[in-house]
């Protein structure tokens, strides 16, 4: 999509910042939201208790659009939870109201391994957000020059190739600085331009979605709505995304969302909703909650539930730990070799892992893989050690086999039964 010059906004200027640009593509956003289209596909909102539904505000045309958008996203990608699906839906709609926001939330789409649906989700976002700007091999200088009073939505795939190692992170420090500064309005960078090296101030404020393997730098994760993707399990299926077939419907929905949000810019800028979280988490989630409040229906409740649960999950998560699906396959082989015992002590599990001459665990770190490092690797898959009872009746710290079953089903799908031959270790 080529950048366009925004039309002037003629509504009374109530926003705190003077220039309020019109979101959406010029010529595609009528002055008022159209009446609900009876031909639009029916969507089924998430199940809710009757007493909660009775307390929901009356749904609006906007709530119908959000229902439709949620259903479209769910066709192509399996999100890790209903709350994550709701959050992605609200984040997409919020990109069409960027001139109203004080903070531009990042969407961090991360997963522990390849083939978790991260890039596919970015495909869908590209066709539904406001003015997408793919930043593959794009320099920070080019991004600076692309951000205006009506900013694009930045989309960064394979972010692990930018920030994955200390050397990469150091090389791309300017990009990290741009993404950090752009979370808040009126944070500029100054660069010299032209032959006479004249200082020029560049805007950074823009919403951004970043997808990659493993966590992004802490400073970016702290400014993000975090979506922790998982690989599809056997039996889970999605509709393949085909640009020629699917893009027109997504563009039509995008333009209807832009039309709905256009008259709401000043109202959105003035709202200060009650939030279930505080501080930076509240800053990041506030645009999503405001969109939900404008849409009404069940969305105000769904937005706050997603905010509270997903922020709490991130608070509980460990910071910056390595991850790899390789450890799951190797632990699976250990349990198979030990006749599928119910549990193994941490020491015994580490002993067997280090004995594998083809594995990396004997040379992991200074003295081989340690209990702490093993715990860090497995936290990506929500597997944690605990007190286990061993075959000899003693109790020790270790891991139970049943805690691995879901992760094995998702990341080691070639292992179908306890008698199956061990699968080759994935490379990560």
Automatic annotation (TrEMBL):
Domain (DUF3631): residue spans on this chain: 228-411
Pfam families associated with the record: DUF3631
Superkingdom, taxonomy of origin: Bacteria
Positions of the UniProt region annotated as Disordered: 1-58
Ranges of biased composition (kind: Low complexity): 29-47
Protein name: DUF3631 domain-containing protein
């Amino acid at each position: 999509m080529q950048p366009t010059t925004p039309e002037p906004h003629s509504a009374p200027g109530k926003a705190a910042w003077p220039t309020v640009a019109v979101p959406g593509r010029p010529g595609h956003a009528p002055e008022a939201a159209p009446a609900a289209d009876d031909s639009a596909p029916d969507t089924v909102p998430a199940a809710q208790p009757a007493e909660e539904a009775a307390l929901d505000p009356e749904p609006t045309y906007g709530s119908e659009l959000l229902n439709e958008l949620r259903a479209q996203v769910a066709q192509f990608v399996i999100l890790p939870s209903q709350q994550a699906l709701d959050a992605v839906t609200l984040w997409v709609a919020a990109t069409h109201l960027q001139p109203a926001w004080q903070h531009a939330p990042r969407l961090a789409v991360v997963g522990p391994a390849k083939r978790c649906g991260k890039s596919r989700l970015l495909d869908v976002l590209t066709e539904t957000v406001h003015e997408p700007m793919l930043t593959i091999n794009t320099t920070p200088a080019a991004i600076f020059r692309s951000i205006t009073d009506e900013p694009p939505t930045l989309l960064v795939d394979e972010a692990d190739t930018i920030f994955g190692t200390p050397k990469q992170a150091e090389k791309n420090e300017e990009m990290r600085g741009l993404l950090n500064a752009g979370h808040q309005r009126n944070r500029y960078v100054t660069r010299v331009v032209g032959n006479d090296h004249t200082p020029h101030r560049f805007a950074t404020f823009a919403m951004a979605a970043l997808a990659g393997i493993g966590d992004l730098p802490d400073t970016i994760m702290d400014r993000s709505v975090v979506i922790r993707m998982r690989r599809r399990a056997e039996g889970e299926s999605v509709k393949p995304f085909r640009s020629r077939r699917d893009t027109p419907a997504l563009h039509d929905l995008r333009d209807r969302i832009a039309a709905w949000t256009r008259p709401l810019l000043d109202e959105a800028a003035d709202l200060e909703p009650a939030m279930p979280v505080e501080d930076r988490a509240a800053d990041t989630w506030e645009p999503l909650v405001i969109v939900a409040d404008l849409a009404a229906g069940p969305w105000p409740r769904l937005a706050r539930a997603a905010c509270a649960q997903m922020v709490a999950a991130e608070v509980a998560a460990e910071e910056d730990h390595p991850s790899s699906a390789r450890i799951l396959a190797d632990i699976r082989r250990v349990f198979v070799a030990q006749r599928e015992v119910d549990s193994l002590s941490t020491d015994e599990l580490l002993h067997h892992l280090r004995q594998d001459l083809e594995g990396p665990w004997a040379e992991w770190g200074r003295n081989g893989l340690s209990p702490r490092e093993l715990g860090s690797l497995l936290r990506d898959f929500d597997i944690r050690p605990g007190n286990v009872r061993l075959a000899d009746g003693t109790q020790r710290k270790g891991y139970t086999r049943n805690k691995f079953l879901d992760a094995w089903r998702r990341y080691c799908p070639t292992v179908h039964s306890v008698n199956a031959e061990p699968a080759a270790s994935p490379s990560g």
